[in-house]
Amino acid sequence: MANKPKVIHGGNILSVAQRLGCAVEELTDMSSNLTPLGKVPGLREAIIERLDEISFLPETGSETLRSCFVEKYGLKDDQLLVGNGTTEFIFGVPAALAPERAIIVNPTYSDYHLACEWASVAIENFTLQRRDNFVIDFDQLAARLSGNELVFICNSNNPTGVLTKSAFLHEFIKTHKNTMFMIDESYLPFVREPSLLEFDFLDNLLVLNSFSKIYGIPGLRLGFLAASRQNMARLGEQRKPWGVNRIAQIAGEFLCHQADGYVEDVISFLEKERPLFVEQLSSLPGVEVIPGVANFILCCLTGEIRAPFVQEKMLAKGIMIRNCDNFSGLDDRYFRISMKSREINNRCVEVLREILTP
To answer: What's the confidence (pLDDT) of residue 145?
Structure first.
């Protein structure tokens, strides 16, 4: 288990505000990969309208929300689980499936490693290279597969923002029937790319879907796991009842029915604003931008200044960014910035320029 990542997450705005002795409103969180457009219109009102339902137990298996989701993607009820965020499934799958080993495509979300470690599953890192802009070489990955392993791929990937086309990924998974693949699509809704849920569902495929990032509700903890009926029987047999709280269920039902236009607005915003932000970041001294498509941008420092220094200097100005030295395959030259409004993005670039200019 070499190259063990430190388990550090971005978006810890509450603890940062407490440490600094300031109000949360005084901080701009560009460290967490949330929607740049804020909460979905009408969501707050929909929750308040049904707030009295916290007096009831939630639906045992989130049956109503599950039905909304499976209808949206043309799945069956027995192909989907609703969970307390995707974290529940990231940690639950290795323990439930007990594969001979796990292959983690790095750099990526560190909880995949931790989940396998907790389940006593042997871990092999498949580390992508900066010279290849962290694009997956699927021929090399195929050469590592022997069967009975679980492969973790985040698409679009966090923290690199690199996207693998879903049609290609589906064909690759289909070709390697003896390997189980967990594809985390938490950031896929930010781009115009079909989900693997829209393809023929494969027996060796598990798909994670999150409402936290695209809808900006990480505090509600709401995620989904889709799998074939055969695998779902194994994954669901040890789940505890009432795993999703009532407010999260209410929010999820509203979002399934009311938020398609919001997602389109987010995608359109990113298509317009991301190239401008990338151009600004690329103009900064000693900064290289990693090509990607996501709602966040990975940058590499090429001079003597390192990411922890930049992170603290930015924080002194009330802006939170993500130091990426805890991601396996990266080091203290890398930092990640999540997009906000054009005004906030411009302010971020101004502060970065002050810090990086000799």
So the answer is: 98
